[in-house]
Amino acid sequence: MNKTELVAQVAAKLSISKKDAEAAVSTTFETIAAALAAGDKVQLVGFGTFETKKREARMGRNPRTKENIEIPAATVPVFKAGKGLKDQVAK
């Protein structure tokens, strides 16, 4: 399912226009992204937790040239599924 299909599903389930559903879905994603960028953790009980983790710098290897390269440190988003989501998917 892509974003367009998600918007269509939300619009159908809530009996609202696709334009309103698009605004709601986009705002939700933007709010989660902004919270993560600010270093906050977003916890949706029963669904899961969005948070960021720091990845240390490390040495890697270019597979084409076999040359060693340094991969810089980065902050990456992480999602951990909650019990409710895990149980629903397992059915």
Structure description:
The chain is α+β, with helices and mostly antiparallel strands and 91 residues long. Helix content is 44%, strand content 30%. It has helices at 3-14, 18-37, 83-90; strands spanning 42-44, 48-55, 58-61, 68-71, 74-81. It has a 3-stranded antiparallel beta sheet. Strand 1 and strand 2 form a beta hairpin. The two termini are 19 Å apart.
Helix content: 40-55%
- Please report the distance between the alpha carbons of the first and last residues: 19 Å
The unreliable regions are none
The major beta sheet can be summarized as: 3 strands, antiparallel
Tally of helical runs:
3
Roughly what fraction of the amino acids lie in strands?
A: 25-35%
Radius of gyration: 19 Å
Shape, per Cα inertia axes: elongated
User: What's the helix-strand series?
Assistant: HHEEEEEH
In the sheet with the most strands, the strands line up as 1-2-5
For the secondary structure, the number of strands is 5
Report the average pLDDT across residues.
95
Structural class, by secondary structure, is: alpha+beta
